[in-house]
Design goal:
heterodimer, A: 447 residues, alpha/beta, Rossmann fold, N-(1-d-carboxylethyl)-l-norvaline Dehydrogenase, domain 2, 12% strand, globular, B: 415 residues, Peroxisomal Thiolase, Chain A, domain 1, 9-stranded mixed β-sheet, 9 strands
């Protein structure tokens, strides 16, 4: 089956979710553009946007239209070339309108799983719940004559097990987008032991057409991205717990968050990142990964405590950050949660004291925003200078940072040694592109 | 007409800022000043300098496409909004694409010549940030023939001048030409930094040559042969100036020290339905500039400064050739050698021109007249240049479309 034939009838499961809506957008655009090619003009491309929530579907259709319009406005130069046979289109606005209409007309919102029975390709982006995923796969597969392929966006559920339990026999592959899929360049592709080569080839071709950076990953708890992030976050929580012996918990959280952002030159501190992903999601993913890690304990009571108090983080549907470990005002952290007192402590009340305890940043310090724009040797040189200066400092901040850097590297190497990642470079690529780090965790800076 | 049969003066010029990317006031997410704001600001400030609305006989507004950019036609109707005292006076809106401003000034001059008026308030205005650039490109494409829109570029006018640049590269060499275009850009920004109303006034990039060379033309994303640095920006702005007869000058009580005299005009229009006769020559500019110089009875050697229509850097290079400063193909070298910089042989676009100051399309022609007036009367502030005794004249060249409508004028400080 040709590439375009495989994409003739596609279903996205969980289309109204954060990941599903992004996958829907990218796939709708890809399918509509295939449809515009002269050889496909007479085909009917169908993309079922399947979700259990009617309200969610209403929202996602609105999101889709707005995003497709933005895409069309950005690539009008190319779009004009797609419609050279249309004498009735003159102005950019004509082409943009037509393009949006053509993309939207590929998409069929639905709450009925039956829609997937005619699909040749299923994208799965429902909740991280193995039995739910398996149930959906089984039901579709026993009613679908096309022997469809299943692309799962799971970030933590072992795909081999789902394949076995749903009887998919080589027709499933992990296609793990990063959030938000429309923006993030990274995709982890995870083969099972049986994934057919043609499925793998198609996955790579599809990723290439979407201009994604592909990192192959092994089907092992959390793959590369969560494999690193979950352990990295756990280290942060342990460090905070340790600090909380001498300071209050909010002070400890403030300090670890600051060190992981400013001292480690990362886009955000580790507690902010946990909030961004969602405390519930982090806890859930750890819970999914944990049973497969006999030598490790991937859980933390701090997460559970927060969830007991119903402080979850995550984002609202408009993309704004909900309060978690930190409280946010227009995206900026302004207070820190104290789980014992069940209230937020204003950052200004503890900032000065904590900053003094951490000690000053050396003058070689570079902020993430600048570092991330640098390239190659120049970047390595500037970062090495900064981290070397840190190493020569006798402050708590420097000590925490160096230990964090070492742990991060250890986690990276562990992923390679346990063959979750095929090579060190892949781990670094995931953290650089998927997490926007300025440098990969496997480096010489902290040795 | 070989000579103007009557003396016509320009005075009391005023430019609003050119608002758009580059200005710190610019924030497309917030409500922006509308076309009414610009018309009022420019009109009121010129009125202030000439003793108020009672001195004015009529108003001429140059504007290109408010009907699409702002869904607003009938701009003559706004003169009573500028000042109640202007209500019920004759007011006319004129249009010739990006030469609308030039036509506004020229119409004023003609009405003075015809003894219809002694004091004309000439305005030029355009507010283009009302829509995204990709849709603005549709609107601006109206300066070309609509039947060619289909096969034109998404960015229609950049496409037209990209083709001219491409033809120039092919004939005279890519690297050689890019050096000239790059120098044109650098001059524009450096001059704009001296003028507080310029869109690029706050540009602080230390190495402008490096900035220019940081991008290579790439047809996949923009046009084949130009980059964004070769283009004027999307601008909102207005300019106003008073056009007066000898009697008018007396009426408004402005001394000749503060006025310039119009010495010659040239106005030529090429057939919009045909392609340019020569891709590496601005033929209409050549003819109109020649007319204006001839009417003034001077040669280019007597010009102390020129405001020329550099909607794209290539148009600046081609203008040096059309005017006769350089042989065909030598314009890029002429500019690269610094001859058009503010210290050069013939300072061009001393407040940044369309690339540096900004290009509120229908306002540009009036802006040029105001800039020339400022320079000749010593009102140019930090951007002031010196005039040698043997070069007391100045010139403006305002172009609409791809060398379709051109208004050229020669001025001299009034005596």
């Amino acid at each position: 089956m040709e590439y375009a034939d495989r994409l003739e009838n596609v279903t996205v499961l969980g289309a109204a979710g954060k990941m599903g809506s992004g996958i829907l957008l990218l796939t709708a655009v890809e399918m509509a553009e295939l449809n515009l090619l002269p050889e496909n003009k007479n085909k009917v491309f169908v993309l079922n946007a399947m979700d259990v929530s009617q309200e969610g579907l209403k929202g996602v259709m609105r999101y889709l239209r707005a995003q497709v319009l933005r895409i069309a406005e950005k690539k009008t130069v190319m779009i004009r070339k797609m419609y050279t046979d249309r004498d009735d289109l003159d102005e950019n606005s004509d082409y943009i309108r037509q393009y949006v209409e053509d993309v939207m007309s590929v998409v069929r919102p639905t709450t009925r799983l039956e829609s997937a029975y005619e699909s040749k390709l299923i994208f799965e982006a429902v909740a991280e719940n193995k039995s739910l995923k398996v149930k959906l796969f089984s039901q579709i597969d026993s009613n679908n004559q096309n022997k469809p392929w299943y692309f799962t966006n799971t970030s933590s559920v072992p795909i081999n097990e789902m394949e076995k339990e749903a009887g998919l026999d080589g027709r499933i592959i992990g296609f793990h987008f990063y959030n938000p899929p429309a923006v993030q360049k990274l995709v982890e592709i995870i083969k099972t032991d049986k994934t057919a080569e043609e499925v793998n080839e198609f996955a790579h071709e599809y990723a290439k057409r979407l201009r994604k950076i592909v990192v192959p990953s092994m089907d092992f708890a959390g793959f590369i991205g969560n494999g690193h992030f979950m352990r990295d976050a756990l280290h942060g929580m342990k460090e905070a717990e340790e600090l909380a012996k001498d300071y209050t918990l909010p002070e400890a959280i403030y300090m670890v968050n600051k060190v992981t952002q400013e001292y480690l030159v990362r886009p955000m501190g580790i507690f902010q990142l946990v909030d961004y992903v969602g405390i519930d999601v982090v806890n859930f993913i750890m819970g999914v990964m944990n049973p497969y890690l006999p030598d490790e304990e991937l859980s933390h009571r701090l997460l559970e405590k927060m969830l007991e108090l119903e402080v979850k983080g995550g984002q609202r549907s408009d993309g704004s950050q909900k309060d978690g470990f930190l409280k946010y005002d227009k995206g900026k952290a302004v207070a820190i949660f104290d789980p014992d007192k069940k209230e937020y402590v204003d950052i200004n009340e503890i900032k000065e004291k904590c900053d003094e305890i951490l000690g000053p940043l050396p003058e070689e310090h570079i902020v993430w925003k600048k570092a991330v724009r640098l390239k190659g040797e120049a970047k390595d040189e500037i970062l090495a200078k900064f981290f070397n200066a840190l190493k020569n400092m006798d402050t708590l901040g420097a000590e925490l940072a160096i230990n964090y850097g070492k742990r991060s590297k250890e986690i990276g190497e562990q992923l390679v040694n346990s063959k979750v990642a095929y090579k060190e470079e892949d781990v670094n690529t995931v953290m650089l592109t998927g997490f926007f780090h300025a440098y990969g965790p496997i480096n010489q800076f902290f040795d | 007409m070989k000579k103007l049969r009557k003396k016509v003066y320009l005075t009391a010029g005023y430019n609003t800022i050119s608002l758009g990317t580059g200005r710190s006031e610019f924030n497309p997410k917030k409500p922006m000043p509308g076309i009414e704001h610009y018309i009022s600001e420019a009109g009121q400030n010129t009125l202030k300098k000439i003793g108020g609305p009672d001195k004015v006989d009529e108003i001429v507004v140059g504007n290109f496409m408010a009907a699409r950019f702002n869904k607003q036609a009938h701009l003559g109707g706004f003169s009573g909004m500028i000042d109640k005292g202007l209500e019920f006076k004759p007011a006319t809106r004129v249009e010739g694409a990006c030469a609308s401003g030039g036509l506004s000034v020229l119409t004023g001059i003609k009405n003075i010549m015809a003894d219809f008026s002694d004091v004309v308030l000439s305005l030029g205005v355009e507010v283009q940030n009302s829509m995204k650039a990709i849709y603005g490109a549709d609107v601006l494409a109206g300066a070309g023939w609509f039947q060619k829109r289909k096969n034109g570029h998404a960015y229609f006018f950049p496409g037209q001048f990209s083709d001219r640049a491409g033809a120039y590269y092919e004939k005279y060499g890519f690297d050689y030409t890019r050096k000239g275009l790059g120098q044109w850009f650098v001059n524009a920004i450096e001059n704009a930094r001296l003028c507080p109303t310029a869109q690029e006034h706050e540009n602080k990039v230390p190495d402008l040559h490096a900035l220019y060379n940081s991008r290579k033309p790439d047809g996949r994303f923009f046009v084949d042969d130009l980059t964004v640095f070769d283009c004027s920006k999307v601008s909102d702005g207005a300019s106003a100036i008073a056009i007066v007869s000898e009697e008018g000058l007396e009426r408004i009580g402005v001394s000749k020290e503060q006025a310039v005299e119009v010495m010659g005009v040239g106005h030529r229009v090429r057939n919009i339905t045909q392609d340019p006769p020569n891709m590496v020559e601005l033929t209409t500019i050549k003819k109109a500039a020649h007319d204006a110089l001839e009417m003034a009875g001077i040669t280019i050697d007597q010009l102390g400064t020129i405001e020329t229509h550099d909607c794209f850097s290539i148009a600046g290079i081609l203008a040096t050739e059309a005017l006769g400063y350089a042989e065909p193909g030598k314009g890029a070298g002429f500019v690269a050698e610094g001859n058009t910089s503010r210290e050069g042989k013939i300072p061009m676009n001393t407040t940044g021109g369309l690339i540096g100051w900004g290009h509120p399309t229908g306002g540009t022609g009036v802006h040029m007249a105001v800039t020339v007036w400022e320079q000749l009367t010593g009102n140019a502030g930090n951007a002031q240049i010196k005039f040698n005794e043997d070069k007391p004249y100045a010139m403006s060249i305002n172009m609409g479309g791809d060398d379709v409508t051109v208004v050229a004028m020669v001025y001299k400080k009034a005596q």
